[in-house]
Design brief:
single chain, alpha+beta, 2-methylcitrate dehydratase PrpD, 60s Ribosomal Protein L30, Chain: A, 2 domains, four-stranded mixed beta sheet, two-stranded antiparallel ribbon, 20 helices, 7% strand
């Protein structure tokens, strides 16, 4: 039994050429690569990264891909594992209602591009096409399903991301639509990841990215070897959509809608600050109120959120704080940090014992308001002098659309934060900008490793 929708999506992905991408979609793909890699450059000091890299090296099946953290050559799956964790551990990656799929797709695609390129078989344009195909596949599968999946405690990023990684890896290896559909189906069988880390304040989220990238490559490898899989995997009686959501909704109804004409890829956004994508509008609103209020002392910060956001795991945690992930997911912590510092940054999110923050956190009140859209919080501040100020987001996720201007701006900001030289930042930007005409991905990988070698994140 087959599902023509899955095969049609796979045919689109396997046949996509970089010169067929509309200008805005091509810009989005380049922007995603630059921004994702720049976030990784600013994330090198997390101790977990070396542990994961060393473990992944034990799984290496060659030495034809690069681990960004230290420039070490290793196998494609091992590189994807280590680089996925690197791109995700700061929690400032690209975002979409269907998750942060770039931290899974980009490491898988770059590792496979290196491995295939070592045999003379790929170039920068092929990488761009593969990244676009991977994003578009993952986001189309997830865009109408993500809320149902998240509501069951599963995590969107590694689940949809693994499918996108499988498609990107398939595209880079020149696999047929049938083989690509098999890879996509196998990736759906491997996909997993839970949200309990958000409640516990632990670091599984970084592992989610690495494992998702590795599983995507494995799925493509199996499919290329001739392993078949169900093409009804998404919408079948015991398929993915029902197992990870509910059986009464056709989550694939829009799977092929305007395929090749309207790109979901163009909806991805960036994060000006580390943390969840729901936090950035809150932080932006508090910054605006802080500027209007002159930084005066407050008696209460009331934040009204869509119920889906207000009840999201970990977001209302108010302490005690012991880990980075507890802090960056906590709206009370991020709100207090914004009011004290005027922004939220990597170093600030490690100030677990700062009395200025700890005294303000209990004054942050979060409530659910079903009149507020998901990305449009409303904030009310009571000052100690009796004045009250209000702010409400109206732009939603559109306020943070990822394009080449925002990607280059964030790349410079992130790299400057960790001491990367302007020359190395320029090389990274130029390497991504010139990908469509690049004969290989070697300059891209070299520019990332150069920037990482200069980075020094002092917590």
């Amino acid at each position: 039994m087959s599902d023509t929708r899955l095969l049609a999506l796979s045919a689109f992905a396997s046949e996509l050429q970089v010169d067929a991408l509309p200008p805005d979609a091509l810009e989005a793909a380049k922007s995603a690569i630059l921004y994702g890699l720049a976030v990784g450059v600013a994330s090198t000091e997390a101790p977990l990264l070396r542990t994961l890299g060393d473990v992944a090296d034990g799984w290496a099946d060659g030495a034809n891909a690069t681990r960004f953290l230290d420039g070490r050559k290793t196998g494609a799956r091992a590189a994807a594992m280590a680089n996925g964790a690197l791109l995700h551990i700061r929690m400032q990656e690209d975002a979409h209602p269907a998750g942060h799929v770039g931290v899974v797709i980009l490491p898988a695609a770059i590792a496979v591009a290196e491995a295939v390129g070592s045999d003379g078989g790929t170039d920068g344009g092929e990488l761009l096409a593969a990244v676009a195909a991977g994003y578009e596949t993952a986001l189309r599968i997830g865009r109408d399903h993500a809320s149902a999946l998240s509501g069951r405690g599963f995590r969107t990023t590694p689940i949809y991301g693994a499918m996108g990684a499988a498609v990107a890896a398939s595209r880079l290896q020149g696999m047929t639509p049938e083989m690509t559909a098999n890879a996509l189906s196998l990736a759906a069988n491997m996909a997993g990841g839970l949200r309990e880390f958000q409640e516990a304040g632990t670091t599984e989220y970084a592992l989610h990215a690495g494992l998702g990238a590795q599983n995507g490559i494995m799925a493509a490898t199996l499919a290329r070897a001739g392993v078949p899989a169900a093409h009804t995997v998404l919408s079948g009686k015991a398929g993915f959509f029902g197992a990870y959501g509910d059986k009464d909704t056709d989550f694939g109804a829009r799977l092929l809608e305007d395929l090749g004409e309207v790109y979901e890829l163009e909806r991805i956004t960036y994060k000006p600050y580390p943390g969840g994508q729901f936090h950035r509008n809150i932080i932006g609103g508090l910054k605006a109120l802080r500027d209007r209020g002159g930084g005066r002392d407050v008696t209460a910060i009331r934040i009204r959120l869509n119920p889906f956001v207000a009840d999201f795991p970990g977001l209302q945690f108010a302490g005690p704080f012991e880990t980075y992930s507890q802090a960056f997911y906590s709206i009370p912590f991020c709100a207090a940090l914004t009011w004290v510092d005027g922004t939220v940054g990597f170093r600030g999110l490690h100030r677990f014992g700062d009395e200025r923050l700890l005294s303000l956190i209990p004054r942050v009140e979060i409530s659910a308001d079903d009149t507020r859209p998901v990305y449009d919080p409303e904030i009310e501040i009571d000052f100690t002098d009796g004045e009250t100020m209000n702010w409400a987001e109206e732009a939603g996720e559109d306020a943070y659309r990822l394009n080449w201007a925002s990607a280059t701006g964030m790349a410079r900001q992130l790299c400057d934060e960790v001491g990367v030289s302007p020359d190395s930042v320029r090389r990274l930007i130029d390497a991504v900008d010139g990908l469509a005409a690049a004969p290989s991905v070697d300059d891209l990988v070299a520019s990332v490793c150069r920037a990482v070698a200069e980075a020094k994140a002092d917590i």
